[in-house]
Amino acid sequence: MLLVCLLLPALCFAAGPADVLIHRNTGLAYLEQDRYPQALEAFQRVADLAPEEALGYADAGLALLRMQRLDEAETWLKKALARDPAHAQAHALLAEVYEGQRRGEDFLREIGEAIRLRPTDARSRYRLVRYDLGFRPTPEGLADAEAQMRALYRQLPANAVVRLRFGEVLLRVGKAGEAQAVYRAAREDLWNVPDEAVPFLEKGLALLSQGKPEEALRQMIIFENVQKGGYRYQSAISEVLTSAVGLPVERFSEGFEARVARAQEAPIRVAFSDATREAGLGDTRADGFALSDYDGDGDVDVYVLRRSDPLRQSSGQASTSSGQGGRTPGNALLRNDGGRFVGVATRAGVGYRGAFTSAVFADFDNDGDADLFACNLTGPDVLARNDGSAGLTTGHGRFVDVAARAGLGPGKGPGRTLKAVFVDYDHDGDLDLFLLRQPAPGAEKKGVLLFRNNGDGTFAEVGERAGLAPGLRATDAAFGDFDEDGDLDLAFAGGDSVVVYTNLRQGRLAEAPRRVGYSGLSPSALAAGDFDNDGFLDLFTGAWRRNRGDGTFGGPEGEVRASGAHFLDFDNDGWLDLAAIGAGRLHLYRNVGGKFQEASGILPPGLSAVRQAAPLDADGDGDLDLLAIDGDRLRLLRNDGGNANGWIDVRLAGLNTGNTKNNSAGVGAKVEVKAGALYQMRSVADPITHFGLGRQTKAEVLRVVWTNGVPQSEVDPKINATVVETQILKGSCPMLYAWDGERYRFVTDLLWPSPLGMLMDDGRQAFHEAAHDYVKVRGDQLRERDGVYSLRITEELWETVYLDEVRLTAVDHPAEAGVYVDERFLPPAPRALRLHTAQDPRLPVSATDDRGRDALDRLRAQDGRYVDGFAVTAFQGVAAPHGLTLDLGAFPDSARVTLFLNGWVFPTDTSLNLALSQRTDGLRGQPPRVEVPDREGRWQTVIPFAGFPNGKRKTCVLDLTGKFLCADRRVRISTNMQIYWDRAFFTVDEPGVPTTVTTLTPARADLRYRGFSRVYREGENGPHLFDYDDVRGGPAWRDLEGDYTRYGDVTPLLLAADDQYAVMNAGDEVALTFDAGGLPPLRDGWARDFVLYSVGWVKDGDINTAHSQTVGPLPYHGMSAYPYGLGDAYPTDEAHRRFLETYQTRRVTNQEFRDKVKNKIKEE
């Protein structure tokens, strides 16, 4: 019998659930009217109605604080913190109490905790600074005041009060030089400052120049006092100081108001009835089962385990025979045929016999259909590959055991396998395998094995290398992004605690420092789900445990001795209910706004020996049924009435050709749904993810955040929504647009040779040196406008850009000659501008692809008609080997020959490279090489690394002089990279062409927010291009967090490559102008083209890119590696320190992205 130690109470409102909101609003109104006794009464009522919420207690404490009843205020605020220890505002209010009581140490502790919990709390920082200056003008206090003001100045650099106070603190700690720079910044920003105040500022600056800081400080204080009554000063002071005592807490905890709304709704009537026979299951014997849509027809099928007596197994090997002559029948596969189940195990080849404990379906080979893994106690486990033939010829599909071939056969070590969990822990696009085992006596002691999927049909055991403790034991496991940092973590249940492993990325895990205890119970049940709809995955561990929002979990709320559990929404109200098994009983708990009430009375009678249960929509009617094993028989419990509420079923379909960035079923992806006020989040674990919608008939927004971190949104999704992954370009480089006389048009991308922190497909880090990039801008692409040339550099993708230098070079030349720069990808290094001319460009005599097809017509002009037709592999950026053969005709052996090839490359990314590096078949990207025939007609490589286009629409310039081995002038460009050529021509003995070269530095460079351009493709095999005139707002990506360059003039940052750069976030733009007056008049018969030179780095947000979650560590030209090598550190001299303090002050977090669906932020 299920032992219930403490059953969770329902939301209990004596006067109705909405009253708590009414009392909250009334109390806030009383506070505004300074009617504190009435406010206190209202907030005490809130605390009575919502005793687990901190708001009522905190605001009651505030009312008492304003009445100067400080001891009582302390009591109530401590009650608030007992309910939410991480409530920053409650800590700040308690600090005000202690300040009023002159309890300095207590004040410092509480205000420090408020700042730690909410670093952007400017008012708490400023209060601490005032305390330091007023009550502890000691070296320690002044040092703390300096630290707090530095943080405030970074956060609010344009705030006049913060700027003046920072200058004052710097003078008090003896840093007059730095204070002078701060006051100079104030002099450059005198908007709305009274004229009579300015002389005091000027006199103070003069005194600082004379080395008289004490006298200067007096002038600066007068400068501040004179302007205190002005609008600007009052506006600035309101950001850091309030006129009233304390600020009220206005919001309940995340999801509370939605839970109140749920509690107001009358629940629909739901009952479960036994539909076993109706479903064709009859008297089906079962010792376990697994669910999946193995045949891809849209409904859920069942694989049934029938455990054989181990003593009857003479060899311990699994068998596919059907079990005749009285032997225990083999396992069964039951195909769902319109709600009735039909046995197809023999035809499907999965009638295995053995001591199987559990099974799971997962598409380990990413071919789009569900494969089967069965865990065996005494013999080898089974990995049965689905050949995908279901519904094609036989209608049933065939499975073949490939465990031994995959490296999962007997050689994996002795031990009893209890459970298998498939999840892409290293985010490389394929499903890895965790095996939970009971090691055999005397054998190795590993209880959890981690087999990394190599992506080629094989697995490698990497548990200890990945960071799993050798002594880890577990009977159950769950996965999801518990700490909401964008990667998948794991939780293991075993012994007396749940151990959480956080994901460090690049295939590494680390045990989280805080375990989740069981409070005396040691169950084996573990389930993950967002049961309070706040956007964070909670746990059921035999008790309900809420995620605090940082990957740690609160104390137990109710305790249930359970051997198995599943979250499900059986009444489709949008709140996850729970099915739990304990002592042979199946129990249901209905979720009422985040609290649970037992609802087992809606189950049919007679369930007395339940061993396993799981939800499924067996009849496809929109509500979740339950499949259970009672004794040793299957029981189908049909849900009657759950579909009176709305629902949506979501299937994810990852691309498995030319992409493979995500596993085919999206396992581990985060799916969010918003329907009216109802927000829900699920971590995908099954082929179908079910959402109840309550009284809503549809969802307005559905967002998938795939396991590679890329978001994909659907507006007004259908009830049965299949979300097919869109091949989205998430990283490339910043984009360049030019004013062409009519509009800004896309030109190309920049800084390709600097993929900071990227992994290569051989497992090494990419180049850490800055890119020194030259790109051509044709004269018809860039036209003079009001005396200037205007360019735009935008960041559209999931990246951070460190733009260090920009120059524009005008190249004047005879109109009949073309001018080019080499835009190949080559190892990054400083290099001078080199121009290549083509006065007499020649078209090849012939051009053929590797299949002998004529390609010459596609190469005549740069017109977006690309040479394609080669096969792509499963991986974006890697194709089947292919080549382009050009016959250049005849010319002397001594001729100078230069080949020009224009095209674009579709790149891999870090996670794809990680996947490629793990393969055992040697599949890697092979950069282009140049081959020519020898005298025997055999192809010989003459340029092993020919480079490749540096992104989109780039020209590669190849010197073929002296490379030909005979009179045959054919040349072949061979590669397996996904490169598409658009134009080819060559020159022979190109004469010298006169040019006039003039280089311009930016006249003005402004950094600002712009948004995101519409992306489109130039034909089926053309690059992703961007429409500057069609722009939308964000957030579009999970931003890299940290300090970016503040908006405004950044011209000084782009004049030299000095590690003082403009740091751009996704959605940012640098608007560049160059003075056209600095160019000479254009000669008659000449034309003018341009070359843009840029220096910098790009770091993308790919989950496996080094430091991909943060802006830092900042790159610099002298570093030995990235991540930093031993001894590397960003420069700390005065110039670089001043750069950081002056420019790097715009704090960016990814909170807005994470809350986008929850708050239903509409895209512009």
Automatic annotation (TrEMBL):
Keywords: Signal, TPR repeat. Transmembrane segments: none annotated. Residues 666-723 form the ASPIC/UnbV domain. InterPro entries: Crtac1, FG-GAP, Integrin_alpha_N, TPR-like_helical_dom_sf, TPR_rpt, UnbV_ASPIC. Residues 311-334 are annotated as: Disordered. TPR repeats lie at residues 20-53, 54-87. This is ASPIC/UnbV domain-containing protein. The lineage of its organism: Bacteria, Candidatus Handelsmaniibacteriota.
